User: What shape does this take?
Amino acid sequence: MKTIKKSVVLLLGVASAFMFYSCKPKGPQSAIVGDAASKVYVAPGKYDEFYNIVSGGFNGQMSVYGIPSGRLFKILPVFSVFPESGYGYSEETKPMLNTSHGFVPWDDLHHIALSVTKGEHDGRWAFGNANNTPRVARINLKTFKTEEILELPNSGGNHSSPFITENSEYIVAGTRFSVPVGDKRDVPISTYKENFKGTISFIKIDPITGRMNIGFQLKTPGVNFDLSRAGKGPSHGWFFFSCYNTEQAYTLLEVNATQKDKDFIMAVNWKKAEEYIAQGKGEKVKAKYAHNLLDEGTHMATSEMMTEVLQLDPTILKDIIYFIPCPKSPHGCDTDPTGEYIVASGKLAAIIPVFSFTKIQAAIAAKDFEGEFAGIPVIKYESALHGEVKKPGLGPLHTEFDEKGNAYTSFFVSSEIVKWNVKSLEVLDRVPTYYSIGHLCVPGGPTSKPHGKYVIAYNKITKDRYLPTGPELTQSAQLYDISGDKMQLLLDFPTTGEPHYAEAIPASLIAPNSTKIFKIEENNHPYVAKGEKEAKVVRKGNEVHVYMTAIRSHLVPDNIEGIKMGDVVYFHVTNLEQDWDVPHGFAIKGAANAEILIMPGETQTLKWTPDEVGVVPFYCTDFCSALHQEMQGYARVSPAGSNVPLKFSTGVVEETSSK
Amino acid sequence: MKSLKPITRIAVGLSALALVSAYFVPLWQIIMWAPQYPEGLEMKIWINTLSGDVRTISALNHYIGMKTIEVSMFPEFSYMIYLVGAIIGIGLLAAIINKRFMLLSYFATILLAGVGALIDFYLWGYDYGHNLNPEAPIKIEGMSYQPPLIGTKVLLNFTAFSGPDIGGWIFIGVGVLLGGLVFYEWRKSNN
Assistant: This one.
């Protein structure tokens, strides 16, 4: 009997231990349900449905992925040098990275804005921001090349950028750091409140060429601007920015900028600003900033230093900006597809306030203000509020929308995506992300006509999601199906750099227009050689210019003599190919810069300063053909003052003894 | 000498006018496929020029020692415009003169022109495929690369097709029509 009792107790113990164990939370491996694989499988030779243009964060580039497969197609150099293609190293691309501080080879690219017409993607350009040395860039989506970079004066870090208006009239650039501007810059840091200012730049986009120039700059009180979105539909003409550090702290912001219960959403009436400008209001102030532009005809970038900018002071020119209180250091500030609702995500808050554009307008008309902040009216929170999403999660960051009236908000702290209805504010579904999601992306999510179908999470923490690669890991993105009522995790895919925001656009808007070659007849590069007969070597003082051609599988010239120590040699290499996907590369031993990749019909220049006497090999670096390995040549470097004549050839065999 | 039936006369006149299209559309086409070129490389032969991926085809063919294809290597391009003009002239003349022997002459001219063009094209193809640069990077013993006269042929990693383009089909159509008309007239006169 005793033994029976004992064994019963033992059994109970085992059972309870088992039950206790099974009460432990389930791991992420249980998250996949149903036939996820077939939904992300793009068969060999088939194409993805969407392009995903993803910011590279601290790599300063953009990267291009296919959705739903998550395959990486391209790393597109923007603000950082890229030795792989010679971007920032070739003579043609160096001016692209020029700034008022000189050549800046790196930056931190956080956000993407794709051009829109009538609020919908038009597939023409992608814009990106440089967070560190404030700049914006424009990428041509036909060539996937960075065509233009514009520096922003009076800015201390360009974070709330480059968000775009409904017809691509403007992209914006709001300062992350307020800094002293104007003539009085050498001031104690403790004089933040009186001397530090923020600026919001409205960068005008030429509707035909896409060229950028600063239309005007708004001087704002010294706070930090985080993110923004343009109004659309009824709210077109307005722009909304999230602001934090309204405490105006200048040290230990972690504590000092988080004391107030509410910071602000700043509403900007940019049509009003345009009216003031039309009346001749505003002040042209001196500024120094670089404007860099790539000419597709010459394949060369040029950098121009600009000298002034038009500024408007909203404390004097009334009705341009208003503040709306918003809980706890808002990050995302997103307008829904109808343009009526503005979703603000306080990253330390436990609710999501949703503001109504109609109510904001009514409050402004009725002067329903609770007071002023630094000379700007502050609208009463309740008067602007459509409602609050209650208990959505912890740490809301960013919201995008589908085509059915739903919103998807990312939660960094509780590491999840929450789906809720914009009108009813009711939470509909939630899924975990692995781990700590930052931005998210619904195809067409920021436009008037979202495509829906998927939401992509760009996570900040990767940990155990992939095979470990030492302390530094790849970044983790996750794809979820949102076509049903419940969100469904489909795929993890690794991403390069550290993606912040990204946009996804139907492939049909980009793929048919993609450039395959540059026409050699249209190449206006000053050092082009349009055929092998035009290849030559020309001396100009101590500069030696090599007009070189590359075609499968030889370089002309491939024997060069008469270069002397003290010379600077420029290899201007023209790729004569007119066939898709036949780039050639060029590299020379000991070059202190990089290689260059030359697309069909293009000319690129590598500068080389010989550092020793001898015969130096050069070769094609892009495996172009069966005889790629034969695509090589020699440059002879003689001592300074030697009398070796300048000579060049290809295919000439001389039977001479050494001279 | 017998006159033509009115329907024949109209058909002869229209057929001559149809040949005017030869000045505006390509006459012949060569298409080449390879594993790396699933979309195909094409060369279109017009009355006085070439178009299509000629530069790329030359760039690839130089590995096996073939000549660079250029408009100047075809003396035909300098006189084909007159030749076709003459054929059109004969066709119109046949309609005007309205006699059986003119219809026969017109038909014979078209037939001769067609056969002549094919022989000319064959000779060019023979030279292009056999007369190779002895210093070519790729040499395969016993291999020549004459493109197909009409139809499809596999040449190393390429599958080449040669055949009429729109203009060529119009010529063939005119030839067939004239043959039919000759037959029709012969039957009518024998009844």
User: Anything to note?
Assistant: Chain A is about 10% helix and 45% strand.
